[in-house]
User: What shape does this take?
Amino acid sequence: MGFRERIQWVGRLALLVFVLASVAFLSALMTMRFAIQGREVTTPNLAGLPVAQAERQAASRGLYMKIEDRIYSSLPKDDVVRQSPSEGSPLKRNEWVHVVVSLGTQKVSIPQLENRSARAAQIELLSEGLQAGEISSVHLTGDTPDIVLQQDPRAGATDATSPHVDMLVSLGKQTPAYVMPSLEGLPREQAENLLVAAGLKLDKITVLPLTGKPSGTVTSQLPLRGARVEPGDSVELQVAQ
Assistant: This one.
């Protein structure tokens, strides 16, 4: 075989290898695509179905159902009010459909919780078949701590959509706080005066010999510099002998 024929033969062989490799790659790509799509299902419509039936409907497509919340609605009790993802959305098998379930129509009015303690308010809600929702707190001068200041829905409401009642609770007057200063290197008497002025209590003084520091000066402290302290907190000092 001449040199030219060898070149042509090698070229044809290389083209054949390229074509076969391309076919194999496309085949693998299509197989992977079909495999991925084969694991996908469309989300069924669960709205309006009883919980048990909705679970069976989801399971028939290889999906799980999770109840995220329960609300008042015109639908019968334990019927699905809404879902996520919505009907027709693509999901992979073994994924979850999240639903909100009906409690039926509201049958109790929202009780008066304002000016009651937070604990008493929660007990009252439970006794009425309701639940405490989001509880926010605020410092207000002149208000007794742990008292409900506001509620949502309002007392007596009969058009609530949820059995959860949100409350704003008083924390009372806010206690002033300070950043612990550095007392190290100060004479003991000056450090004590600073603590008294801040309303802090000197709890313990330890005298240390051979510190290399001037006699009577503070060598270390607890809490450390920068710590958050409140009036009445205790402070410990170590002082050079």
Notes: The helical segments are 3-38, 51-59, 118-127, 188-197.
